[in-house]
Amino acid sequence: CSTAPESNELPELFELAKKRDYEDLLKLIQLKSQNFITPQSIWDLKDFLNFKAKEFDQKYDYRYSILDDVFAKLILENLLNLNDLKLLSKEKQEQIKNILNILGKLS
Fold this sequence. Notes:
Elements: H1 4-34, H2 39-59, H3 67-76, H4 90-102
């Protein structure tokens, strides 16, 4: 069960990861738009953005029952790091580290 202070920090972690993800996406869009040479390029960008919107909806799933998995995935994607998790309880940090250990991604 989450403590009240930790519950208040969960949205902050999500927003931090989203901010980093959006910054990466903006850089990618800027690169793609430099290579527009045909009208089809516009529709290709639209398709790409629709795909990314669905990906964001799935990635930032805020159901409490899967938050440990979500945070572990965000670490694997370099959108969060272990230092960011210091906002969470030690117990929650350990649970996320255990998931990363299981996946063989934490040394």
